[in-house]
């Protein structure tokens, strides 16, 4: 790992989401600890997620260490993780 994050990254997701799974697997592959926030499967119930990210789609990756938020783009989240912590 390039550098270990000081604060744990946060992932807003739901378990059955294949895009979220890809991001979880990348963080696990990199040996990272992270915080999972499970959001409701129904988009209309994702009020907290919308307040945080401005939209209702998952995955949403939040890195307080670099003040980065990546919403609804698993490829971009994985690329960010590899570049920043890989």
Describe the structure.
The chain has a single domain, classed as Glutaredoxin, CATH 3.40.30.10. With 86 residues, the chain is an alpha+beta fold. The protein is built from three helices and four strands. It has a four-stranded mixed sheet, covered by helices on one side.
Question: Can you give me a brief rundown of this structure?
Answer:
With 86 residues, the chain is α+β, with helices and mostly antiparallel strands. It has helices at residues 18-29, 47-53, 74-85, and strands spanning 9-13, 34-38, 60-63, 68-71. The longest helix has 12 residues, at 18-29.
Report helical residue fraction.
25-40%
The CATH superfamily label reads Glutaredoxin
How many distinct beta strands? 4
The total of helices stands at 3
Number of domains: 1
Shape: globular
Overall pLDDT: 95
Cα distance spanning the termini? 5 Å
List key phrases describing it.
86 residues, single chain, 4 strands, alpha+beta, Glutaredoxin, 4-stranded mixed beta sheet, globular, 21% strand
List the helices and strands and how they pair.
Elements: E1 9-13, H1 18-29, E2 34-38, H2 47-53, E3 60-63, E4 68-71, H3 74-85
Parallel strand pairs: 1-2
Antiparallel strand pairs: 1-3, 3-4
Helix pairs in contact: 1-3
InterPro entries: Glutaredoxin (IPR002109), Glutathione_S-Trfase_N (IPR004045), Thioredoxin-like_sf (IPR036249)
Domain GST N-terminal: 7-86
Pfam family, one: Glutaredoxin
């Amino acid at each position: 790992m390039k550098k270990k994050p000081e604060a744990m990254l946060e992932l807003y997701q739901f378990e059955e989401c294949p895009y979220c799974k890809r991001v979880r697997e990348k963080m696990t592959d990199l040996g990272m600890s992270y915080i999972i926030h499970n959001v409701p499967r129904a988009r209309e119930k994702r009020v907290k997620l919308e307040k945080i990210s401005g939209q209702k789609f998952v995955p949403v990756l939040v890195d307080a260490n670099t003040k980065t938020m990546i919403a609804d783009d698993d490829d971009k989240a994985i690329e960010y993780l590899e570049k920043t912590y890989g």
